[in-house]
Prior knowledge:
Number of helices: 8
Shape: elongated
Low-confidence stretches: 1-7, 9-21, 113-118, 124-132
Largest sheet: none
Strand content: under 5%
Distance between the termini: 49 Å
Amino acid sequence: MKSTSSRINSPHGASNTGAGAEQWTDQEAVDVVEACKNGDPLAQRRLYDASHQNVYRLVVRMVGVQEAADVTQQVFLQTFRKIGQFSGKSQFGTWIYRVAVNESLQHLRKAKRSQMQVLEQEPTDRSPDGHENVEDKELLEQALAQLEPDLRSTFLLREIDGLSYGAIASALEIPEGTVGSRLNRARRELKQYLVELGWEP
């Protein structure tokens, strides 16, 4: 069994999920995933605790604050329902991001909308200076809301969560070249939207 492919704490290999998250070795992560495949409720709870913050942070920017809790819950329902399909060929965090993006896009399609509610602040920002650039954050959130969902998800996975092109390609099930073209387009459109909203470089 590959011990480096099932890391849970971060989809790109780091062990940082924020305050209170467990810090696991690679083997512990493998064991938790395997226990979840066997329906162990304690393992499911550990996996949820380790993954929830990163998943919610992505979902809240995809569908908006009002819908994020429900969609995040659905992400984990699907995660535990489909975890037997996780082969270990990629990191577990990348796999669960794929579930999160798919559920978010499905929600947006069902709702026939792609506009998300503007965030008042970073949903998981606990830094002392987290409120210094609230106005810029609000403009960014408004601009993000105007991006097509496919562009938004690609941009968030790269710029917010720091995934590599390869990890993004795996999470979204697209070629790496498409990741690059989507990022270029997302950045170009974001800059245009920001300027239209009154942002000054």
